[in-house]
Amino acid sequence: MRERGGEQILLVDDNPTNLQVLFKTLEGSGYRLLAARDGESALYTAKRARPALILLDVMMPGMDGFEVCERLKSDPETADIVIIFLSALTDSQSKVHGLAIGGVDYIAKPFQADEVLARVRTHIKLQRLERELARRNSELEDENRRILNAVDEGIFGLDIAGRVSSMNARASALTGWRQSDAVGEEVWGLNLFPGDDAMNESLKLLCKAGVSLRKNHVKVRHREGTVIHAALSGSARAEGGAVLVLRDIGEWLANQKALEEARGEMDKQRQHLAHIERLSTGGEMAAGIAHEVNQPLTAVSNYARVAQRLIANFPEEQRAKLDDVMTKIGVQAERASAVIQRMRSYVKKPSGAKSVISLNNLLEDVLSLAEVDSKMSGARVVLKGAADLPTIHCDEVQIQQVALNLVRNAMESTAAANSNRPVEVITYFNSKIAGFKVRDFGLGLSPEIEEQLFSPFVTSKEGGMGIGLSVSQSIVQAHGGDIRHEHNPGGGAVFCCEFPVYHESE
Ligand code: ADP
After folding, report:
1. Residue of minimum CA distance from atom 9 in ligand 1
2. Would the pLDDT of 216 be above 70?
3. Of 66, 183, 194, 374, which is the most exposed, with the fewest CB atoms less than 10 Å away?
4. How many CB atoms lie within 10 A of CB 65?
5. 155/152 Cα distance (integer angstroms)
6. What is the percentage of the chain residues whose pLDDT exceeds 70?
7. Keywords of this protein's UniProt record, alphabetized (predicted)?
8. Does ligand 1 come within 6 angstroms of the Cβ of 469?
9. Cα–Cα separations (whole angstroms), residue 241 to 28, 188, 244, 479
10. Which atom of ligand 1 lies at the shortest distance from residue 438's CA?
11. What is the pLDDT of residue 4?
12. Residues 6+ positions from 35 with CB-CB distance below 8 Å
């Protein structure tokens, strides 16, 4: 290691006396001294020893001082050696030439020892300061680069003409542009915002007129053609040009989307819950009505029986007529009562209990319930039950609800289309599933409805709630089954409901 103040100085002069004087002048001043007596050996020593400074005589035989200087300056290894010319030539042209080719100073011969020493000291000191400054500069630059490369934002430095002057690693990663390719290019030439003339215009205003720029969401084209989503800000620099910052918001956008989806799903569930609450309130009301109506109906049939007994003593002809009427009253009352019974069992809260049932039997009950609607709408329903239909394991009341809903929809559509073809309820099976189809020849489904058929509150009916199919789907899926819609080639709609077959061993 060189000691502080221990820089090497090369003394070059073809005149040994001069060399000696120089030696004496600088000896003891703390520098290590080297000497050369011509240009060639000066070059050789300079290259090998790399002195901090050379006191270089201009007038030498062979290679003169100017040439030595030029050759040293043109070699990067020796270019930063400080050169002070010594010469008896005092014309200003030589001085200017010396300084022009890279010398820092010029001492006229004959020289004063004090002057030589003072100038050498000054220039050595200057060189030290310069080196220190360069080192600090490069440290700061490294530090800058490290910071820029550590940040999560892509940063472009732009000059006043909009050309990229610098960029960090993240800017490369986001845009696919390598620093070596992008630097020197106009930023709008990188095609980061293809077709977005307004954005390219804003970038020009930013660089040339210092109009700052902020966008919460821009699409940036990666060099390979993919698109990234980013927030962008551009700020003018005090010294001219601008800084453009891109922040990748892809992940943030994805999170936002997931959040919105979760919110949507929550809303759906909330609506579903509200629906179920309404259903159960409706169910309770129906149960109450059934209870209230059932009592007078029982009374009617009891009175009919009593009246029948009382007329036993009537004359034959009258008795036969009255008996017939009374029998009809009794039959009708019992029929009404049976409808009420079925309604009560239909609306009773699902117990959640599953039993092994035959779809054919279940659908027969559903058709009896639908009879009331059938009378009102004029649409008929027929059941085509498959023989040997395997059983399924289900909550009977819930599956009745599903089937009744499908049959009612089919009847409404049939009536609305003024079709006289009956709604068909057809059971079918294979080794794995048992199911039923509800087929009608009514209006069929409009494409808008079909698109979101099983979503809640989708309805084409005035006063319709649009929740029947959504609830039906939840029920069927909870049974491990499937419900779907098909077009009826004969016009109208077909809904298929399928359940896993129940095996004895299960
Ligand atoms: P709602 O009957 O209260 O409208 P649904 O969920 O049961 O509710 O039905 C939703 C919509 O699906 C109906 O409004 C109707 O447009 C359509 N739809 C259901 N079944 C049929 C069918 N068999 N034929 C034609 N359209 C139907």
Report:
1. 466
2. yes
3. 194
4. 28
5. 9
6. 92
7. Coiled coil, Kinase, Phosphoprotein, Transferase
8. yes
9. 53, 14, 10, 68
10. 23
11. 46
12. 10, 11, 12, 19, 23
Cβ atoms of 184 and 164 closer than 8 Å: yes
Sign of CA dihedral 281, 287, 289, 292: negative
Looking up tokens 């309404």 gives 278
What's the gap in Å between 410 CA and the centre of ligand 1?
8
Q: Decide: 498 and 434 in contact? Cβ < 8 Å.
A: yes
CB 150, CB 169: distance < 8 Å: no
Identify the weakest region by mean pLDDT among 80-84, 280-284, 412-416: 280-284
CA of 460 to the centre of ligand 1 (A): 7
Q: Which helix (H) or strand (E) holds 32?
A: strand 32-36
In this prediction, residue 326 carries a pLDDT of: 82
* Residue 221 · residue 227 · CB < 8 Å: yes
Helix/strand/coil (H/E/C) assignment for every residue in 225-274: CCEEEEEEEEEECCCCCEEEEEEECHHHHHHHHHHHHHHHHHHHHHHHHH
- Neighbouring C-alpha atoms within 13 Å toward the C-beta of 192: 28
454 alpha carbon – ligand 1 mean position (Å): 9
**Residues 103-147: pLDDT tens digits?**
999 998 888 889 999 999 999 999 999 989 999 999 998 898 888
φ and ψ at 34, to 5 degrees?
-125, 160
| The pLDDT of residue 342 | 65
In this structure, the strands spanning 392-394 and 8-12 are: unpaired
Q: How many whole angstroms separate alpha carbon 401 and alpha carbon 475?
A: 9
Buried b (16+ CB within 10 A) or exposed e, 238-260: eeebbbbbbbbbeeeeeeeeeee
Q: Give tens-digit pLDDT for 476-493.
A: 988 899 999 999 998 999
